[in-house]
Amino acid sequence: MQIILQGMMVLLWLIFVPMLLGTAIEVWCQKEIQYRSAYLLGTFFMWAVFQLIAVLAIALQKTLTTVTYIWIFIIGLALIVSVVYLKTVYLKRKEVFLFRRPNIHLLNYQTKIVYILIVLVIGIEIVLYIFGVHKDLDDTRFVANSVVAWNRDRILLTNPQTGANWDGIYGEAQKDAVSPWTIYIALLARLMQIHPTIIAHTVLPVFLLVMSYFAYSLLVGACVKKEPFVQALFLLILCIAILFGRFSVYASATFMLTRIWQGKSCVVAVLLPYLLCWLIRLYDDVQNKRRYVVLALIHTAGCLLSGMGIILCALLSGAQIVSYGIQKRDWKVWLYGLFACIPNLFFALLFLKG
Predict the structure, then answer these.
(1) For the whole prediction, is pTM greater than 0.85?
(2) CA atoms of 64 and 354, how far apart (whole Å)
(3) What is the pLDDT of residues 140-190, one digit of tens each?
(4) Which residues lie closer than 8 Å to 155 by C-beta, 6 or more apart?
C-alpha cells in the first residue's frame, strides 16, 4: 500500500501538476499547444516558485516545513487559476486543445525505424538509472544537504560533512543558499514520502532524462522544420553519443547518465536546450510581451539549479535578444530582454555577495 501511495505521489507531482500548469502557460503565450513544451514549462514554473520562496526562507533561517506549506499553497492557487483559465479558453477555442499526434502513416519506413531505435536507446538509459546507482564525492555535499533538510527540518544550517549545527551559512553552503536545488529535492521527498537519496539517484533522473530529450526534440524541430527524418536521425545520434560518450568523468554524456539530478548537470541537459529553442521561436514573435514573461520564468528556474544557470541563461538570452533587436531595428526588444534577465541579475548579486 505504501508503494502504491508513493507511486501516486510521483505521478501527481512529476507529471500531472506540471502538465496542467504548463498547458495553461503554453496557451497563454502561444496560439497552439505543444505538449512536450507544456510539460517543461510547468516544471520550470514549479522550480521558479520554489526558488523565490526558498531563497527568502533561507535568508530568514526558516524550516523546510514552512517552505513546503507556502510552496504547496502557491502551486495550489496556480492550479486553480490554470483550470479556470483553460476552461474559459476551451469554451472559446476548442481547436487549440487538439492533441496533434504525428502522422505516423505519412512517415517513411526509414524514419519509423529510427524512432523505434530512439525509444529503445532511451529505454536502456532509463534502465541504467533505475538499476545502476552512481555514487561520487558530490553526494557528501548535495545529497547530505537534502537529507539534513528532510530529516532535521534545517535548511543549510548543518555541516554536511560532520553533522554539526551551524548558527549561520558558511562555505559552499553560501552558493547553495542562492541556488537551493538540493532543498527542492528534499521538498519532493517530503511530498512523495520517499528518501531524498532515492529521489536524487533513481526517481528524479528518469524524469529529467525524458525532459532532456523533450527539450532536444523541440530544439531540432525549431531548427529543421518539416524534415521528420532529419529530426529523428539527429535524436538517434544524440542518444547513442550520450550512451557511449563516457570518455571522461567530466564529459557531458557522463554527467547526463550518472548525475543529471545535480543542478549543474540539469542546466546543461534540460534547461539550456529548451531555452535555445524558446529563443529561436521568439525571433518570429519578438513583440509578444507574454513570451518575455515566460522567458523570465525560465531564467528563474535556471537560477534554482546552480550558479551556472544564473550566468549561462542570461548570456545566452542576452546575446540572442541583442541580435534580434539589431535585425528587427526595434530597441524595445532590448528592453523586454532586460526585463527577462532581472531574476539573473538579482540572484547573481546575491551569489557574488555570498
Answers:
(1) yes
(2) 21
(3) 788 889 999 999 998 988 888 777 888 777 777 788 899 999 999 999 999
(4) 54, 57, 58, 61, 62, 63, 64, 67, 149, 180, 183
